[in-house]
Design brief:
Helix content is about 70%, strand content about 5%. It is mainly alpha-helical. The strands form two sheets. Strands 1-2 form a two-stranded antiparallel sheet. Strands 3-4 form a two-stranded antiparallel ribbon. The longest helix has 27 residues, at about 240-265. The radius of gyration is 24 Å and the shape is globular.
Length: about 350
């Protein structure tokens, strides 16, 4: 009688192990969804087009991904802090316009001369412009407590408006410069290769490695995750919350300006409408990569995978001749699915 009672009360060990195994597989698939999605995209388009699965095409697509990936890395830092930056697309466009403006020559009417800056000086000043836009965002949000959505929405319009005012709505063309003026080499970022890899891709790799090191091996990274997870607790623990918040927006602006340099270098032209909706693409890459929009969770590896998913999907649809309207539909569906999976992943952990 006693043995029978113990047998009836004993839980089904086999079923429990099977259930745990299923949960582990489901968790693995959920956490590795960006990588799996990238493999599915490559396999699908490789079957649909013989021109897709080639080394030359992969390098070309990677150079396109660099333009999405750079602002996405900056957006990751902002989202880890629990914020949002809607101004990255406009900052990208403004950076390209500023670079084009300086490449055309700066007229000093009082001295009666036109100043032509070397390309390295143009690049540095362009990055400073991006940092200033980020600084304005950071100060408004950290010190004046303006909601991130409102503050960055405002700077989005201001930056785009300044770009339109500088160009009068036109585009700066032929930014290759002149040897006689000493301002050649602007197209180096867009067209040159090192070890047969586009320079833009190498720039993305260097920025990603630096950001990954910053997040995983520095006090700044620990403070960022802490303030994004629970800002009040981090503040009480001595974390410089306001300084961290300003820093991430400055870095986001710099990443967007760097993307503007790469894009205008690839096009050898700079227009005031460049980067339109890129802020949404950057957010999508971060979300697809598994970062939580509530802050405190995410990494550079996932964001890069998210950027490659968007880039390879868009270019694949172009290669097989899908309408641009359907491309927008597919991209939007991928974003919605990624947000849904994020909700399932982090909602389950919270419970």
């Amino acid at each position: 009688m006693t043995d029978r009672t113990q047998t009836l009360d004993t839980p089904p060990v086999v079923n429990k192990k099977k259930s745990d195994k299923q949960l582990n597989v489901a968790r693995l698939l959920l956490e590795g969804r960006a990588f799996i999605a990238l493999l599915v995209i490559i396999a699908t388009f490789s079957m649909l087009s013989p021109n897709y699965f080639t080394g030359a095409n992969f390098l070309t697509m990677a150079s396109h991904v660099a333009i999405f990936g750079l602002p996405a890395i900056g957006m990751l830092l902002v989202i880890l802090n629990g914020g949002i930056d809607l101004s990255v697309g406009s900052t990208l466009g403004l950076a390209g316009v500023m670079a084009g403006f300086m490449m055309q020559g700066i007229s000093l009417e009082a001295l009666g001369v036109v100043l032509y800056l070397p390309v390295w000086a143009v690049a540095i000043l362009t990055l400073v412009v991006g940092a200033l836009v980020g600084l304005v965002n950071g100060v408004l949000i950290a010190w004046f407590r303006v909601p991130a959505f409102v503050a960055t929405l405002g700077t989005m319009y201001v930056a785009r408006g300044i770009a339109l005012l500088i160009t009068n709505g036109l585009t700066y063309n032929k930014l290759s410069g002149s040897e006689a003026l000493g301002n050649t080499g602007f197209d180096w970022l867009g067209f040159n290769r090192l070890f047969n890899i586009p320079v833009g891709v190498l720039v993305l790799g260097v920025v990603a490695l630096a950001c990954g090191f910053l997040l995983s091996r520095s006090a700044f990274g620990r403070w960022l995750y802490a303030s994004g997870g629970n800002e009040r607790a981090a503040d009480l623990s001595g974390v410089p919350v306001k300084r961290i918040k300003i820093s991430v927006y400055v870095l986001s602006g710099v990443c967007a300006a760097l993307a503007g340099l790469v894009l205008s270098s690839q096009l050898t032209s700079a227009g005031p409408t460049a980067g339109t909706t890129y802020e949404l693409t950057a957010i999508a890459a971060v979300v697809i990569g598994g970062a939580a929009l509530t802050g405190g969770r995410g990494n550079v590896r996932g964001t890069l995978l998210g950027a490659f998913v968007i880039g390879f999907l868009s270019d694949g649809l172009v290669i097989i001749g899908v309408s641009a309207y359907w491309q927008t539909v597919f991209t939007g569906a991928v974003i919605v699915l990624a947000v849904l999976l994020n909700t399932l992943q982090y909602g389950r952990r919270a419970r």
